[in-house]
């Protein structure tokens, strides 16, 4: 029996964790931020967050400073409430066995056992708080969480990558462009990912099946001064199905001298799956990741230098 959540339930849980992680900052999350951080398709993220609002677990506000936030502290929200916001009531509406002999007209022999199992599951989900899920999520992110032997995920497919490039512009000029938003980066990401994927096509499994899909870019809140700025950066390609390339990390801008700046991109890159769900080996994954990041930095530097002052 398959006990996994539906896609809707999956996305509702992810979105709730995203809002919970931001609760202490008291900053609402934008749709694009939830989509980028938790890999919820942008076409669904509005209705997914709407489900949390409808269940009374989140609130939304409008305006430039608006977005979504939890309606109450994560410790006061249960996993049961979140799952039921996405899946509906976790209680059978009909008899488990359906039809049966005439003597089963009122109740079947499985009723007591099945009801007890359902109540036990509801009790466990009800006693698990959203705050506990966030704590586990942060431990996984930090690499301190012990992976259980019955984990169902595939082997890790992401790799750490870092590279830098010099830009023949003052750091302050580069920062102005980055503070304006990241939409202009999308075509450069598309081209850079194609260069990295070309390596996979030549020497690795499968081909660049994701090409032609929309690339979503999210720049987080910049931190630091114009001469030493750090911008959280995430990008992903989206499509109707499958696993698409994704990067999550940070872009650092630092002044080399009054006329030149350095762009440094570092984070973790996850490539698309190959044909029939094949996973890249470590060496090929590193090559694809480095080629993608290197191509992006070159293109961004060139684009910045070509814009009139």
Could you walk me through the main structural features you see in this protein, from its secondary elements to its overall organization?
This protein has helices spanning 7-21, 31-38, 45-54, 79-87, 111-127, 130-142, 171-179, 186-203, 282-306, and strands spanning 58-61, 67-70, 159-167, 214-219, 223-225, 228-238, 246-257, 260-270. The protein is of the alpha+beta class and 309 residues long. The protein has 2 domains: 7-142, Orthogonal Bundle (Arc Repressor Mutant, subunit A); 159-306, Alpha-D-Glucose-1,6-Bisphosphate, Chain A, domain 4. Helix 1 (7-21) crosses helix 3. Residues 202-212 have low confidence and may be disordered.
Top keywords for this entry?
alpha+beta; single chain; elongated; 8 strands; 309 residues; 9 helices; 19% strand; two-stranded antiparallel sheet; Arc Repressor Mutant, subunit A; Alpha-D-Glucose-1,6-Bisphosphate, Chain A, domain 4
Q: Could you name the ranges where pLDDT drops below 50 across 5 or more consecutive residues?
A: 202-212
Helicity level, as a percent range? Answer: 40-55%
Q: What is the CATH domain class of the largest domain?
A: Alpha Beta
Coarse morphology? elongated
Structural class: alpha+beta
CATH architecture descriptor of the largest domain: 2-Layer Sandwich
Q: SSE layout and pairings?
A:
Blueprint: H1 7-21, H2 31-38, H3 45-54, E1 58-61, E2 67-70, H4 79-87, H5 111-127, H6 130-142, E3 159-167, H7 171-179, H8 186-203, E4 214-219, E5 223-225, E6 228-238, E7 246-257, E8 260-270, H9 282-306
Antiparallel strand pairs: 1-2, 3-8, 4-6, 5-6, 6-7, 7-8
Helix pairs in contact: 1-2, 1-3, 1-4, 1-6, 8-9
């Amino acid at each position: 029996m398959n006990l996994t959540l539906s896609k809707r339930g999956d996305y509702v849980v992810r979105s709730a964790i995203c809002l919970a992680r931001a609760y202490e900052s008291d900053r609402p999350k934008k749709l694009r931020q939830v989509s980028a951080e938790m890999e919820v398709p942008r076409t669904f993220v509005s209705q997914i967050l709407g489900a949390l609002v409808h269940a009374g677990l989140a609130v939304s506000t409008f305006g430039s400073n608006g977005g979504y936030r939890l309606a109450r502290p994560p410790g006061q929200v249960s996993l049961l409430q979140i799952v039921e916001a996405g899946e509906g009531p976790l209680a059978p509406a009909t008899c488990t066995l359906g039809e049966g002999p005439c003597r089963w007209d009122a109740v079947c022999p499985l009723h007591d056992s099945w009801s007890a199992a359902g109540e036990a599951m509801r009790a466990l989900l009800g006693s698990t708080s959203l705050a506990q899920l966030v704590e586990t999520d942060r431990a996984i992110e930090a690499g301190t969480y012990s992976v259980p032997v019955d984990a169902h995920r595939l082997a890790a497919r992401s790799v750490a990558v870092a590279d830098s490039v010099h830009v023949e512009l003052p750091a302050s000029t580069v920062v102005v462009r980055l503070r304006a938003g990241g939409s202009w980066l999308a075509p450069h990401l598309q081209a850079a990912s194609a260069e990295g994927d070309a390596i996979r096509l030549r020497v690795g499994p499968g081909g660049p099946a994701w090409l032609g899909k929309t690339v979503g870019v999210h720049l987080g809140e910049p931190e630091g001064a114009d001469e030493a700025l750090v911008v959280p950066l995430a990008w992903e390609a989206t499509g109707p199905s499958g696993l698409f390339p994704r990067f999550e990390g940070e872009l650092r801008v630092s002044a080399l001298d009054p006329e030149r700046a350095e762009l440094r991109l570092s984070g973790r890159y996850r490539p698309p799956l190959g044909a029939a769900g094949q996973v890249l080996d470590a060496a090929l994954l590193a090559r694809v990741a480095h080629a993608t990041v290197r191509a992006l930095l070159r293109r961004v530097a060139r684009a910045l230098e070509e814009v009139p002052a």
